[in-house]
Amino acid sequence: MATFPEYIAQNEERDGVRFSWNVWPSSRLEATRMVVPVAALFTPLKERPDLPPIQYEPVLCSRATCRAVLNPLCQVDYRAKLWACNFCYQRNQFPPSYAGISEVNQPAELLPQFSTIEYVVQRGPQMPLVFLYVVDTCMEDEDLQALKESLQMSLSLLPPTALVGLITFGRMVQVHELGCEGISKSYVFRGTKDLNAKQLQEMLGLTKPSATQGRGPQTAQQPLSNRFLQPVQKIDMNLTDLLGELQRDPWPVTQGKRPLRSLGVAMSIAVGLLECTFPNTGARIMTFIGGPATQGPGMVVGDELKTPIRSWHDIEKDNAKFMKKATKHYESLANRASTNGHIIDIYACALDQTGLLEMKCCANYTGGYMVMADSFNTSLFKQTFQRVFTKDVQGSFKMAFAATLEVKTSREIKVSGAIGPCVSLNAKGPCVSENEIGTGGTCQWKICGLDPSTTLALYFEVVNQHNAPIPQGGRGAIQFVTQYQHSSGQRRIRVTTTARNWADAQTQIQSIAASFDQEAAAILMARLAVYRAETEEGPDVLRWLDRQLIRLFMFHLRRSPFLQVFNNSPDESSYYRHQFNRQDLTQALIMIQPVLYAYSFNGPPEPVLLDSSSILPDRILLMDTFFQILIYHGETVAQWRKAGYQDMPEYENFKHLLQAPVDDAQELLHTRFPMPRYIDTEHGGSQARFLLSKVNPSQTHNNMYAWGQESGAPILTDDVSLQVFMDHLKKLAVSSAA
Amino acid sequence: MNVNQHTPMASPYGQPQPGYSQPGYAPLDGGYPAPYAPYNGPASAYQPGAPPQGPARGPPASGPPPVSAPQPYNQYSHSQGDMQNGPPTMTQAPPRPAASQPYNPGAMNLSGPHPSYPQHYGPPSTIQQVTNQMTGMQIASGPPTPAGPGYAPPHSSQPPVSTAYSAAPPPSYTQAIPPVSSAPTQPPPPSGPATSQQYYGGPPPSSQQPFNSSLPPTSQQQFTSSAPQAPAPPVSQSQQSFPPTQPPFSSAPPPPPLSQPSPYHSGPPPPRAQMPPTSMPQSNHLPPGPQGPPGPPGPLQQPPPQPGMQGGYPPQQNGAFGQVRGPQPGYAGPYPGQPNYGAPAPAPAPAPPAQKRLDPDAIPSPIQVIEDDKAKSTEPFTTGVRGQAPPLVTTNFQVKDQGNASPRFIRCTAYNMPCTADMAKQSQVPLAAVIKPLATLPPDETPPYVVDHGEGGPIRCNRCKAYMCPYMQFIEGGRRFQCGFCSCVTEVPPHYFQHLDHTGKRVDCYDRPELSLGSYEFLATVDYCKNNKLPQPPAFVFLIDVSYNAVKSGMVSIVCQELKTLLDYLPRENPEMDSVVRVGFVTYNKVLHFYNVKSSLAQPQMLVVSDVSDMFVPLLDGFLVNVNESRLVIESLLDQIPEMFADTRETETVFGPVIQAGLEALKAADCAGKLFVFHTSLPIAEAPGKLKNREDKKLIGTDKEKSLFQPQVGFYNNLAKECVAQGCCVDLFLFPNQYVDVATLGVVPVSTGGSVYKYTYFQAQSDQERFLNDLRRDIQKPVGFDAVMRVRTSTGIRATDFYGSFFMSNTTDVELAGLDCDKAITVEFKHDDKLSEETGALMQCAMLYTSCSGQRRLRIHNMAVNCCSQLADLYRNCETDTIINFFSKYAFRGILNNPTKAVRDTLVNQCAQILACYRKNCASPSSAGQLILPECMKLLPVYLNCVLKSDVLLPGADVSLDDRAYLRQLISCMDVAETHVFFYPRLLPLMKLESGSLPVAVRDSEERLSKGGVYLLETGLHLFLWVGASAQQELLLNIFGTQSFSQIDPSMTSLPVLDNPFSQRLREIIDSFRAQRSRYMKLMVVKQEDRAELIFRHFLVEDKSASGGASYVDFLCHMHKEIRQLLS
Predict the structure, then answer these.
(1) Are A93 and A61 in contact (CB under 8 A)?
(2) Boundaries of CATH 3.40.50.410 in chain A?
């Protein structure tokens, strides 16, 4: 076998799985001593263009409590046509369709290279995709115009059979009836009163289908559309016109007031509408908001402009009077939506906060997107939104709906929980650990919205007792079963089965240590830290983190917006954490420790230390923090540029130098979702602060003269530098070890 | 009422009654047990077919009143049909008596008359019977007897005078019977005896009176009695003479000639029979008046005047009687003739007399009074003289405002108010004013001038805040003024100062409306506005029910179609300008649909609000729009609404949220306005204000009946309060196919000064015209919004109670979200101190409102009446029509809290007290048995009877609860003219039509209908064209274009346009009638003996009604009995 790094990369490539340990300590006691738990980052829909979906259904273990899927790790008795479940050791008969099975004629799922395999469920109707736009109308005309155009554009990206609906809101909430001739109709609700699904159903007159169902079998088709959700192909024109005619909320806004924005009720109605029309069907509620909710349930700030929206300071002082109530409201919505498999996206474009803090669970529980921008009239929003509808090579959306992830484990190991855009399905089973980490107490999670990069962190617990040694060569297996609705409407099941060796920590500590995946471990611990930060008090989390094993990323993690709320609004924190919790390992790493490349005449672009010492006058720096792509021109370069050398033929090389980071940035911009904020700045530019806040302050106003170096740029901060941090850490490690 | 529903009506009428009758009876029995029995008897006799049976049964049945009752009744009902036609015939005559009898019996009961009745019937003619009756009567009269004796003497003396009259009345009433004998009475004694025998003989005088009464003579006596002093003798004698001839009948005849207007008599030979009863009235009538001579008649105070009036009368009490106005100074002269009518009518009923009834012609005739008043009122009525009663509402007259409000704005029950509370209490005459603040004036009268007192606002008394008016006395050279109401002295602001002339008047007195006129307006300043902000122009919101029924009946498309043109006729003050009223549209069934009709839209937008539990307005901009700006969008909307809902299957509706929606819209726009709600069904959908069907006929007649008139839920009361606070007036158009609970749905309209229109079983084809005309008128009529009305009075009286469509949050301010030109408010006054004869009683009605152009104004009406310390003065100057208006509103409100029967009894009692008080204190001393009515109240009994038997107080079996609630609410805001024609419909014979004048109306009795004629009957709500079975061909040809009676289509709602003068004139008349009324009257053609005739007959209010209401004659007898009881 190759080296561990290669093994890890291969596994990630094939199964989308990265474990913190790739050899597992064989007893509970030893496992606990390892500090970093056995855990995995799992990307359920890891793109596998080479993986053809299999057109039949998986074979399941017949034990009711197991139901594991037949996989390459199973022992098969070809003659008896039996297979033994590698999780519960139940012996199962192959179904009749496997009669021709033999050692030379194996079904795909038994082949080792198909440790990840995708089945297509043939049963059941093909469900249409449902897109429900929830649009704020309390915004500047310019913004609204841009938003309208984006929405109109999006119609052309939807498959013709997809159902779309439109809800607009301002002071009132309007549910638009689509496809009416002549007079356009909409149902209006006041923004101050929440409605449950049943009330909504009655008020929208949606009870009729059930009444007419008796008519005949053809009516089976009927529930697939109603007056509010109609196929794009049918109401394309109508909806385009409707969007075109959208006006700013006409209710007067007096001076010194915020417009009354009934966001909470609008989302509630959207959720309710889908709840009573398309339960358990993939659907996306796309919410576009231009400001905070200012009335009704879910309001996060009053309409008096003189009262600013809550800050971290207010929250700490328990001075955010709407927060708890609003959070509760959105949480209940998120739960309802996730129960029905519906996604809630939030596209918030405003200069001030919009209440993402309160609404975060809507996106977090349902696997929805959260996008934060300054205006709908920015490319950040426009392109991000467009990228939502990205298609793969088959022409299907890269999004999946209403998924459930089930984890099955060998007896020696149990699952403690998951952290990611999911909710618990509360499925108890033999493989559920009593210790919860993240969303635990279950072996099944619902992930309403998935895309190829959605990654969950799953935490396991070794339960094997010390006195029950595992035979040499024994392997622990974990199976991930992801059922989801493919964007083509098909129901699919992806099964990933993976196994790792057991090792006795006392005798084989070396091999266990060698199998440690520090990147994965860092992210897994970071997720845990963020999860705790969300649910616990900030300082406690840092202390906790400090007590845990700490490696490289600790320094940056501690300074990152995921844990550090200073200088970030509550909304921003929520946004960053949201992204951090769902992105895959690579992206997550970037988030924690931004990548810094240097471009200079001294050679090809090179990655440099994220340190203030890297900031040199003759360099162009490209920093990728995931959320921002920043190009920083050093002092000299900036002067050159200002002087216009790049336009002179004789300085073409300078032109190329300037262009190089831009091209690289474009590449990053094109692949990333959501679109990062693109910043082009220079030495002394106001936006250079983004760079300065990230780099390790090895030189500050306190020590620059002491260091006496000419290179680098001093950072005006009181934060400790990595050096100081490391020194301190070393001291700690030694003393605690003692 | 039922008019709309032809079919339903018909059937109920015919059949239900039987069943119904019984229940109805029960209560009646209480009141007039005996009466009925007798009735039946007679009735049966009546019937052509049944006659045989009738008689047979009659007697027996009648004997035991209760038992027979039901049967007879049925018969009766059936018989009615017959009767109508036949009235003329003698046979019929009997029936009536029957009717009348009932009352008598009442009277009789005491005496044990019953037995007598039966006999009467059978043997009417025979003397014996008479005697029997007499005997019975006597007993009854027992009490009177004494009088009798007394009488006798008086008779002798008086006889001469009133004799004719006197005779019958006194006794008669008491016991219906006596009347008849009247004639006999005086002379009678002598003659009487002869004829009737005992009765007369002894009687004329006293005891027998009863009997006598039955005899025409008696009745006369009564009169005489009243008139004893009156010289009348001669006259009376004449009458008497008659009586003798034929006690009952003959008597009747005589009267005619004498007393009254022959007109009555003419027709009535048969009636004669009735005459007897009439006698009573005579007292008033004294018709004998003919004998004007008696002038001197000793009658009490009144006599004097009367004398003038009717020589004969005087005797009869009050000359007052003579003519309504007689008493009044000015009038006295003119009437002379009139007295007659009244007079003649002697007591009705001596039923015993053998069904002889009082001669209807002899009892006070509304028609005569109306005609006399018309004849008298040739000069314009000037309001300068304090305490002068205006002409009747039925008279066309011009008004000149000389300091008091025109009677078109204010009418009072009494123009001579008693000075003290004691007097008022003693007389029981209600002191009330019917105020119609925004009444439209005829073109030849100037509308109230608008006065602007500048920034300081109108000048007012410092203490009581009364507005500047002619009653303010300027003193100290004009530097101060003394308030006429509270006597407080207030400084005159410098800018208003003016010198006084030598009489103490301001020099500019005639330049300023507020100093010289009774009615005018002030421009209000911002202090008089809500929130101290000048008001926005008002808005109209149309809320249209689009449920299945509404669409199917055609209502939706009719409304939408009509609105397209109607929107150009929104109210405006300056006809040159566009109206500033904005409009908005809502449709609804279980949910509400608002429409955005902003002018910038290409198509209207519909906004559905389905959260009806918590109503709100979904849009602001674009809901209320200017018609001209948004015309295209509005038209597009109105075109599309019927289409959009053409296939609706929604049958449930809401109602509360609909009004809330309109209210919220007005609130959002911060303006006052009016909602026009077009609604079809009981709102059973889940929503605030949801109702359930609670129509339960079993409750009728029980103590729980009142609950049916109360709203089912409190929701609407609260809603109404909110509406009033916002100035949101609600007009409700109902198109029900079944019970919709008008009592509850009407709460908001009634409390906000709105109107309820009801089109039961609406069908586009037949009811469209009526609905559209109502709608047009309703939308176009002048209207004020967000009004507050306050009535200030001189110290001594106080406005204590208010009746009408409005809301009151305290005891003095009448709040009206809206008030249109047809709404009247009746205000009752009570003493809280003494009034003085010198200053009289002043009242000032000030109404603050927002005009349809959005201007805030104060309309002031001032009224001064005299005060008197003599009861006679009070009785001389009352207005019966206004009293009836008050009584009806009082009673219709009363049934909300009291059993209907109790309300009826209260009315009868109060009326009896009024008359008894008069009799006791004002009429000349006379036999207690005599019925003496004040001249100006001689129609009180007949009108009161109409109120008592109205559908609200005495429903027929076919009258739905909704109809009653509807009428109840409707009448609560009617003015005097409307209540008058409503309770006593106008019945015009159409045999001859002249251009320029209307034919003289006839009384509302079947007897007045000639088989060969065609009649037009108008109630203010209904219009009937009754065609006699043998109407002349030429007449039919002229009217219908057909010669054959059978070819007339009874379903036609308008007359064919024929090119002949008769047809033209008739259509002109019909149009003019419609123009006079605030609601369009659909024309119903009723053919004699057709089923629909039952409906028509319901409006012949002088006859006994199918629902058990008494005939005029009977009621008069009953009233007499009551009075006698009070006097004894």
Answers:
(1) no
(2) 130-205+226-388
